[in-house]
Structures are given as structure tokens and as C-alpha cells.
Amino acid sequence: MADLTALALNAAHGLPVAELHGVVCGLAVAHGGLVPMQDLVELVGTEALTDEAAVARFVEASVGDLNATDMTFAPLLPEEEAALAARLEALGQWCGSFLAGLAAGLARQGAGSLDDCPEEVQEIVRDFSAIARVDSQASAGEDATAAELEAAESDLVELQEFVKVGVLLMMSVLGHDADDPSE
Hints:
Blueprint lengths: L1 H10 L5 H14 L6 H8 L7 H16 L16 H26 L9 H14 L13 H34 L4
Helix pairs in contact: 1-4, 2-3, 2-4, 2-5, 2-7, 5-6, 5-7, 6-7
């Protein structure tokens, strides 16, 4: 992950790493593993991106992780040493930007609305939308007990795993639909 973080930092400025990775992954899921650079630029703006080569390297590495057969993909978030609130906020940013990338990609593919997607995708999108709205300040705060902090940490790890599995499931479902000539 550290290499991917370094690539993200080289590819963008003024844009959180989690947001950049989320939008790239959302576009990749919608486009069957491809990320049209025009869509990425339209979503994040040219001012947020550095040079084209650095962006291309980040996109290629991100899509490579997403398509890896060993399922090592994970949302690009701060390391465990970061404060719990910062990691929760980054997960919310990741989910929100993933949904923006997914929506833009699906619209480009001709999906008129979320209703045009399989039910599994609709359900995951609803869950990701709720995660994007999570209040990081509502998590276990400074006055929390050790047990509360441990429980909050465990909840965050579960949410991160849920997001990972949800993305991979959407990739599979949407990729399958595109490859299935009977639909």
C-alpha cells in the first residue's frame, strides 16, 4: 500500500489520497477495469492532478490491485497508526468518491439510474452512501474507555473489509453483466 500511496501523492495535489483512489476505483468498476482519463479529469478537475504520466502510473497500479486474482485490493486509507477519526473520515471520503466515479462511469455506459443496475449493486451503493455520511467525530472520542476504543477500532476494520468485498462483488457483477450476451 505504501507504494500506491506514494503514487497517489505524486499524481494529485490538494486532493486526499482516499478520494483519488475511490474515484479511480469507481470508474474502473463501472468501465470493466478501465479508467477513461477524460472521466477522471472531469470528476476531480485538472487543477487537482499533476502530470499525465504520474496520474497514469497511479491509475494503472490502482486498477492492477483491483483486478488482482489474489484479492489484495483494499481501499487506500491512512495506516493504522493514524487517529481513528482520521481513518473513519478517509473511509467516508473513499466511499463518496467511489460512488461519484461509479455513477459517472455508469452514466457514460448508458445506465439511466441506479435502478438499471442489478439488485446486489443497488444494495452495496446504498450501504456505501451511508458510510460516506458517517460522522468521524461521533466515533470513540478522547474520553472513550479502552474498551470503547477497541470496539470502535474493530468496527472500522469490519467496515473496511465490507467495503473491500463490496467493491469486488460489484466488479464481478457488473463485469459479468457486460460479458453475458444473453442480457
